[in-house]
Amino acid sequence: MSRLTIRHVRAVLPDRILDDAVVVAEDGVLAEISTGPGPADAVDGRGAFLLPGLVDTHSDGLEKELQPRPSVLFEVGFGLASFEGRVRASGITTVFHATGFYSDNRKGRSIDGARARERAIRERMSSGQAQIDHRMLFRLDARDPDGLTALGQTLELYAGADIPPLVSYEDHTPGQGQFRDLDAYIRLYLSGREDHEAARAEVQELIARRDEQIGHRAVALAWLLERRDAVRMLAHDLVTRAEVDELAACGLGVAEFPTTLEAALAAREHGLLIVAGAPNVLRGGSHSGNVSAAELVAHGLVDGLSSDYMPFTMVGAAFRLASEGLADLPAAVRLVTDGAARVAGFTDRGRLEVGLRADLALATVDAGWPTVRGTWTANDTRELVAA
């Protein structure tokens, strides 16, 4: 039997902080959570906070790791290994790579690129060398027929998975959703243009091209409805109550990044889980002018926070929410652990609780910000290897 003991920590339990705690993992499972001095050969946490390993349900970070500059593109296997280290150093032990099965030149996304990333992630997990639990969040563009075909083929590989595959229904056409404000879209994607009117005309042309495929939204929704028992459906950037009502009828389980308070309230009325962005919390608002994630937390309208595009924002957001009094620390940590695990459909992780996976993160607070001092996954605690 493999055994790992960590002593002298402030264990962040779902409802309280247990001071001077001793946490024991055996064969990758939490076996004991108690108080006292602990054995002398245990890892000494020196009074740091011990959290459950963080669960990130939406990460675009691998894309940025593969292409850190417009003219630089790394091989996907190398980029995945590099990004894995960055994620682990942020206390994240389970990450869902948000992978768009559609073409978008401005974001460097393509169906071939999505297939390559999915294949690399699957191979990394099957190799037995992965330092964290890599998962997929499949992004379905509501107006892309080719993407729908490719996604359907890829999902066949996930039949019999331990949790249903996560599929995010999205429509990033400017003028609605996240970019209802066309000027916000222009600032983000066409900021180098001196001629604002020319940029606006280019966006209008994009909208017109996208509108030629607007009828495919019904096809994509029908496709999801047929698979409502086989996939876990998330809806991205919801704006109105009517949108929430429509998608809830199609089997929506999660509202991901609602852009308005109205949409978040409607999602809660339907009993949906709600995901917001951790970067939004840290920046004090949305980069595209949408509702503040901290405001949604204050209204009790967030179940999970995701990193979106920067891994360390998750632990940073949890401690920021606690320091600003928007949530006590156990509640704030639940947003990046237990709540996020429930968003994904997990029941075996996200809490410091005997019998669950021994995914752990040790963190201190230094000069007002958290520092992750160590990360262990269930596999590590089977092998007694610490980060």
Automatic annotation (TrEMBL):
Keywords: Hydrolase
GO biological process terms, semicolon-separated: organic phosphonate catabolic process
GO MF annotation, one: hydrolase activity, acting on carbon-nitrogen (but not peptide) bonds
Entry keyword Cytoplasm: no
Keyword Transferase: no
Enzyme class: hydrolase
InterPro entries tied to this protein: Amidohydro_3, Metal-dep_hydrolase_composite, Metal_Hydrolase, Metallo-dep_Hydrolase, PhnM
Superkingdom assignment: Bacteria
Cross-referenced Gene3D superfamilies: Metal-dependent hydrolases (3.20.20.140), Urease, subunit C, domain 1 (2.30.40.10)
Enzyme Commission number(s): 3.6.1.63
Domain Amidohydrolase: 240-362
Name the record gives this protein: Alpha-D-ribose 1-methylphosphonate 5-triphosphate diphosphatase
Species, as recorded: Actinopolymorpha pittospori
Lineage: Bacteria, Bacillati, Actinomycetota, Actinomycetes, Propionibacteriales
